[in-house]
Amino acid sequence: MIRRVLLLAPLVLLVGALTACTPLSTALGGGASERPETTSSAAPRPSGTPVSPPRPTVGAASCTINAPGAYQAPDCPALIVNGDGITVTAGRAGAIEIHGDRNQVLADAGASVQIEGQDDQIVVGGDVGGIEIHGDRNEIDGQGRIGSGRIVGNDNAVKAAAGVGRIDDEGARNSVGAQP
């Protein structure tokens, strides 16, 4: 009996050490294919070591983010967010496209904003030429003026410090107007 306990003790310690550093499903051999694709080049680090924030994939035409997390993006011709639970602080973006739920984007400037999802929040530091929302409970907050756009969904809010132009509202309980 004591021999079995002595043989099991190192095994229990090994399993405990492995699961402390990785999700339990991955450590036990399952769920590895369920992990989202990341665009970060950071290697895994031991607990307690500072980790640099993940980076978006930056191409000539766009900055694209496909995995949950917090990101800082440079100036981009287009900022594209594909996924859920993504937070981005960005410079200037020609276009901001959100495809997913519960995302947050804070950009210095954006010529246009397109949302396809639920519960997304976008704050743009300057004027926004046009917007398009397909979804529910999304918010766009322009610090300048928002030109024109379209809302297909419910319970969305569009507001701008310098006013909002013509917005075609094809939903219910949407709020469109200048900030108080």
From TrEMBL:
<feature type="region of interest" description="Disordered">
    <location>
        <begin position="26"/>
        <end position="57"/>
    </location>
</feature>
<keyword id="KW-0732">Signal</keyword>
<feature type="signal peptide">
    <location>
        <begin position="1"/>
        <end position="20"/>
    </location>
</feature>
<protein>
    <recommendedName>
        <fullName>DUF3060 domain-containing protein</fullName>
    </recommendedName>
</protein>
